[in-house]
Write a structure and sequence with these properties.
There is one protein chain. With 236 residues, the protein is of the alpha+beta class. The protein is built from six helices and 13 strands. Helix content is 25%, strand content 27%. The protein has a single domain, classed as CNF1/YfiH-like putative cysteine hydrolases. It is globular. The strands form three sheets. Strands 4-5-8-7-9-12 form a six-stranded mixed sheet. Strands 1-2-13-6-3 form a five-stranded mixed sheet, covered by helices on one side. It binds zinc ion. Zinc ion (ZN) is lined by residues 153, 155-156, 208, 210-211.
């Protein structure tokens, strides 16, 4: 069910893998995608199973992700268009979805503020992680920790040279070369560089989605499959 799970004080967080759900091949098993042709009931059951394991009975808030840099306050039962989400509410689970893009979880436990961001190539370049950190600071966060989850690594993510230059102009750390010697992007390296500049300590809990059969990879598996990144601040 998880590729990484940790607790830091009252903060629980996790990145899922593809196991422990009810979706059938090729989506098997724990598919959390919003769109795509996997069975809707299976995806609903996957969310139920995951939430029951991660934070039984807790409400969750998620996003309709659009590769931008908008950040919203968590509002359970809605699904706003945004790529960053924050809350100061205890027990609310924040969920973002990825399948090659970079999931980022953020917390200042002492201040009682948590956040999550979906940072693909466009979102990273547009500064969604920095925007999420900034929003957390307006809510009182001062000492933020971050966890970067699984994404397609720079050795596996080929892009046209012009696209690489465009992104590297904004974030030089993202420039990479694929294992077959062509221009690539390491979006997670870009995110880590941004977090460092923002004064956020980050744990790199990433693995390459494309190289791991345990994870969903848009580039390997196609559309309609998603992993989840979850975080919550437990009630005292
Ligand atoms: Zn890779």
């Amino acid at each position: 069910m998880y590729s990484f799970r940790a607790s830091a004080g009252l903060v629980d967080l996790a990145f899922t893998d593809r196991y422990g759900g009810v979706s059938l091949p090729p989506y098997a098993e724990l598919n959390l995608a919003v769109a795509g042709s996997d069975d809707e009931e299976a995806k609903a059951e996957n969310h139920r199973l995951l939430l029951a394991d991660f934070a039984d009975g807790a409400p969750f808030a998620d996003l309709y992700q659009v590769h931008g840099n908008e950040v919203v306050d968590a509002a359970c039962g809605t699904r706003p268009e945004a790529d960053g989400i924050v809350t100061t509410e205890r027990d609310v689970v924040l969920l973002v979805r990825t399948a090659d893009c970079v999931p980022v979880l953020l917390a200042d436990e002492a201040a009682g503020v948590i956040g999550a961001a979906h940072a693909g190539r466009r979102g990273m370049a547009a500064g969604v992680v920095t925007e999420t950190v900034a929003r957390m600071r307006t809510l009182g966060a001062t000492s933020i920790s971050a966890w970067v989850g699984p994404y397609v690594c720079g050795a596996c993510y080929e892009v046209p040279e012009a696209m690489q230059s465009e992104v590297a102009e904004v974030e030089p750390a993202a420039k990479a070369t694929t294992s077959w010697g062509t221009p690539g992007l390491d979006v997670g390296a870009g995110v880590l560089a941004q977090l460092a500049r923002d004064g956020v300590d980050a744990v790199d809990a990433s693995r390459c989605t494309r190289e791991s059969e345990d994870l969903y990879s848009y580039r390997r598996d196609g559309a309609g499959m998603s992993l989840g990144a979850l975080i919550r601040l437990r009630g005292a």
